[in-house]
Give the backbone structure.
Amino acid sequence: MIRMVVKRLLIGVFVMWGAASLIFLIVRAAPGDPASVLLGPDADREQIRQLHATLGLDRPLHEQYVTYLGDVLRLDFGESHRLGRPAMDAVLERFPATLELTLTATTVAVVAGLLLGLLAGARPGGRTDRVVSAVTIALQSFPTFWVGIMGVLLFALTLRLLPSSGVGTPQHMVLPALTMALPFIAIVARLARSSVTETMREPYVVTARSKGLTEPQILLGHALRNSLVPVVTIVGLQMGALLGGAVIVENVFAWPGLGSLVVDAVANRDYAVVQGVTLLIAGAVTVLNLVADLLCAQLDPRIRMEAAA
């Protein structure tokens, strides 16, 4: 187990280095000059040149890169001159709202997806299976931003059941969390359905039936546990996608998380904030994948044996 943890941590180091390098190159390759954006259209060449020197943008790219990596290793993620504060402070201030939304959406997706997967996998090819398959295909077909806008139009503006934006009450969480959860529900349901279908054909399930166990007991006692391993794996991967994809949903519902922060940072060429958000999400994904691997090892003894070998 320790070997597996060490291996995953080493992989995580390379992931963080790759994310840091990639975002460094992307933000500098994007059109637009941070100094011109900060100073405005009335700035002259000398003012822009001085700000370039202050920001370190007048140096060769490789020197900027080495300095940037050295600062990251010292946990110095730079100053946001637009906000007038350390970039990571601004990112960490917004991160709890994004994390809360992501965890809520993940919980809804896992519970609903497992339930649908168990119902569909219990009788493959039956009416319930066909209905669940059609629903999951539909859930994955609609773009997230379109689902969010339709949710606002229907539940907030037409029926007036839920608020359209903002925070403050549990009702504010419903629309953004469901918007993020719907395609995730489809992924979990289809994965659980496949796993349950395979499990129900195993010899030990036939033995359990011969001993008089009911179908609900077999589903909950045998099929559910075996279906959790692939679900836990996909949850670890998908939560990272949710953290990154929350940018769209948060802007639709005016949720005060990383979404509006990173959009404003990109529009204003705030390199430090964009890099800080990217590194934080990359670190969160690395940790989530490690947790998912450890949970899978606890659920499946074969994984523990492979890790110990």
In short: The chain has one domain: 88-308.
